[in-house]
Automatic annotation (TrEMBL):
The record marks H144 as: Important for catalytic activity. Keywords: NAD, Oxidoreductase. Pfam families: 3HCDH, 3HCDH_N. NAD(+) binds at G13, A14, G15, N16, M17, G18, D36, E96, K101, S123, N147, K279. GO terms for molecular function: NAD+ binding; oxidoreductase activity, acting on the CH-OH group of donors, NAD or NADP as acceptor. This is 3-hydroxybutyryl-CoA dehydrogenase.
């Protein structure tokens, strides 16, 4: 398969990442189906597309014609069969829980045409942990976007030992068509490059907050002003989701059993309270 054979893309999950990945695909000219089990999430995703595109046109960053075409290219459905049945390329951006991902990959393997590539946008989980739930491990890889996915330029593509050269190449080519800069990792490692580096920073920031050395807001102020990061680690966690920080730490702890991998007390507190960041309008900060 070549990139030219990819006409139809299915994005599974309309959450923080999926809604923007799907819109990015539609903007790049692909017929795109965005699917989620929650109609409410799909309504939000559609609402976002319907307000974002006119905003881009008003800002002079997008032509009216391209905005109209993108809206024509994208559809939203709760029906996985319908969304993935004719897909040439699937990007899974569902919740960061192994059991859910494995079930989804088994379903997608059954539903998607045999030639379709199945990529996961997982933040941490390497694709070999889901590839064996399918009968096409050579067509499974990681394709990891960053939040907000319409803005951040990088995508990490990870070629597992099961992933064919062709799959890695088509995925890299797709990244380029989406206007992204892609790095290809030929060795699987939990968290890939960026999230490993980011977690080192977040872990230290959480340690300092848990110890009462400084508040999350003070730590963010220090990091943005001293290191020039556009956001401090706590505001960034609000953006990417404190639920994601919790689930990924739990996944890591369940496989390592190393107490240092457990979610930090502050993350647990926020998770239990349902204060998951921007998506719940409250995390370390409060949002309108
Ligand atoms: N969705 C879409 N576009 C957005 C957006 C959003 N949520 N937020 C901002 N933008 C766009 C704006 O429309 C604007 O576009 P334009 O310049 O073309 O007009 C541009 O981004 C800049 O926006 P603003 O001027 O409003 O705000 P900032 O200059 O503060 O930028 C930011 C916002 C791009 C989010 C910036 O703060 C930033 O880069 N933050 C760091 C983000 C980051 O580190 N992301 C990686 C997280 S790690 C991750 O995602 C891994 C995953 O596995 C968890």
């Amino acid at each position: 398969m070549k990139l030219e054979d990819v006409k139809t893309i299915c994005v599974v999950g309309a959450g923080n990442m999926g809604h923007q990945i799907a819109l990015g695909c539609a903007l790049a000219g692909f017929k795109t189906a965005c699917t989620d089990i929650s109609q409410e999430m799909l309504d939000k995703a559609e609402g976002f597309a319907r307000s974002y595109l006119p905003e881009r046109v008003a800002k002079g960053k997008l032509s009216q014609e391209k905005a109209d075409q993108a809206l024509e290219n994208i559809r939203f459905t709760t029906n996985l069969e319908d969304a993935a049945g004719d897909a040439d390329f699937v990007i899974e951006a569902a919740v960061e829980k192994m059991v859910i991902k494995r079930k989804l990959f088994a379903d997608l393997d059954r539903i998607a045409p045999p030639h379709a590539i199945l990529a996961t946008n997982s933040s941490y989980i390497v694709s070999s942990q889901v590839a064996d739930a399918t009968n096409r491990p050579d067509k499974v890889c990681n394709m990891h976007f960053f939040n907000p996915a319409l803005v951040m330029k990088l995508v990490e593509v990870v070629q597992g030992p099961h992933t064919s050269e062709e799959t890695a190449q088509v995925t890299m080519d797709l990244c380029a068509r989406l206007g992204k800069t892609a790095v290809l990792l030929k060795k699987e490692i939990y968290g890939f490059l960026v999230n490993r580096i980011l977690s080192a920073l977040a872990q230290e920031a959480l340690f300092l907050a848990d110890m009462g050395i400084a508040t999350p807001q003070e730590i963010d102020l220090a990091v943005t002003n001293a290191l020039g990061h556009p956001m401090g680690p706590f505001r960034l966690m609000d953006l990417t989701g404190i639920d994601l920080a919790y689930y990924s730490a739990m996944e890591r702890y369940q496989s390592s059993r190393d107490p240092k991998d457990k979610p930090s007390p502050l993350v647990v507190e926020k998770f239990v309270k349902g204060e998951w960041g921007k998506k719940t309008k409250k995390g370390y900060y409060t949002y309108e």
